[in-house]
Design brief:
With about 250 residues, the chain is of the alpha/beta class. The protein has 2 domains: about 90 residues, no CATH class; about 130 residues, no CATH class. About 35% of the residues lie in helices and about 15% in strands. The strands form 2 sheets. The chain has a 7-stranded mixed beta sheet with strand order 1-2-3-4-6-8-9, with no helix packed on it. Strands 5-7 form a two-stranded parallel ribbon.
Length: about 250
């Protein structure tokens, strides 16, 4: 056994001398995630181009719910990540914002369709997304937490899900709402004190809206219960008090 051990030691020494000038190779991590993110972003951008063409061909420039539905149908069978949404919106701001007729509410409808088409159930939205706050969440079916204010007609025709808005809401919140729950931690801003000019929860047929802040109008404080006479079915709470129950 001794000669064999000697040969083994000599072989080991020779190997060290032969390869002594080389350093161990640093392990490299293949950035598969980056490749997937790039493909995901390309998918979203491609779908947005088709969305523009479809809305133009149909001529539904005012119907944000139908716009959301178009976006949903274009994205529901594609693989994408909502994490790429901010990157896509920055691209939109830089390259597509000057397209004639493409106002921010149409982009908000696309975002809404994208969220509904996602495999995820829960979302936290803030930052650049809230630059497109008018009509954001139209036709919503997911659980969404907003870090900031939403604009006019946000979460209109909402079907289901739970929405928490950590900020203020504009007029038209929950217009034609069908189900789910919306909570506004901040104030509700309406254009006038008269109920017929308030589209918040107008023609609401289901669900709940909880308003934890004040209801603010140009004419000063108003009695909340008189602002929602157009509600057909549903509940509205103001500062914990049930003011509409139909």
């Amino acid at each position: 056994m001794e000669p064999a051990r000697k040969i083994t030691r000599e072989a080991s020494v020779c190997a060290r001398r032969k390869f002594g000038g080389y350093k161990p190779e640093t392990p490299k991590i293949v950035r598969v995630a980056k490749v997937k993110e790039k493909k995901s972003l390309e998918t979203i951008t491609e779908a947005f181009g088709e969305y523009i063409s479809t809305v133009r061909d149909i001529g539904c420039y005012e119907d944000t719910y139908l716009q959301q539905k178009i976006a949903f149908l274009l994205l529901k069978n594609r693989r994408f990540s909502v994490k790429d949404l901010d990157v896509f919106l920055h691209i939109y701001e830089q390259e597509m914002a000057e397209r004639e007729g493409w106002t921010r509410d149409k982009v908000a409808a696309f975002i809404s369709g994208m969220i509904n088409a996602s495999k995820a159930r829960n979302f936290k939205l803030g930052g650049i997304v809230l630059d497109f706050k008018d009509s954001l969440g139209v036709g919503n079916t997911k659980n969404v937490e907003i870090q900031g204010d939403v604009g006019v007609a946000a979460f209109s025709k909402m079907k289901s899900g739970v929405v928490l808005i950590n900020g203020n809401a504009g007029n038209g919140l929950g217009w034609c709402m069908r189900g789910g729950k919306i909570t506004v931690r901040g104030d509700l801003k309406v254009p006038r004190a008269h109920y017929y000019s308030v589209n918040t929860a107008r023609d609401m047929v289901g669900g709940e809206i909880h308003l934890e802040g004040d209801i603010i109008s140009p004419r000063g404080p108003t009695t909340a219960r008189y602002l929602f006479e157009s509600v057909k079915h549903g509940r509205i709470y103001h500062k914990g008090e049930l003011i509409v129950d139909k």
